[in-house]
Amino acid sequence: MTSYFRESRNVELSVLYYLETCYNSDWTGITVVKTFNSAYLDTNTLPIVCIRLASTMTNRLEIGTTTLNNRYNIIIDIFATSDAQRLDLSDYTKDKLKDGWVHYDHSHVSGDNTTLDRVANGRDFVTAFISDTKLDFGTSADVKDKYRQNIYVQVRKSS
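Above: the chain sequence. Below: its structure as tokens.
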């Protein structure tokens, strides 16, 4: 039996897959993770990019309809090795996000959570670049927090 994922999970996995593919083709040595805790694992070395769905904002598409218009808030945390790399990765990431990416419907066979199947189903687009901020934890910060950047975007799925 195949387990199909819902739209929120598909949006998160689609942006994760897209950016991981971009980083792998244009950079070397970048670890991409989906959970914030994974960024701090000792097995993951810098640079690290953590991509995750933070929240969903839902409104009705039109008054009187049952169709919902979902907007997904995606957080991208960049854990860099220097201020220069932090800035370069931030600009690169925003440049890649601005044109949108393929939205995939993901699924996996029940009992096998290691292999994902992907089927293209529309596109995802950034509707708002909410913030792009350096996080400064001071001079005594953990090595992974020393050169941190946080990008917050709002995304929608289109057909």
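Residues 7-26 form the longest helix (20 residues).
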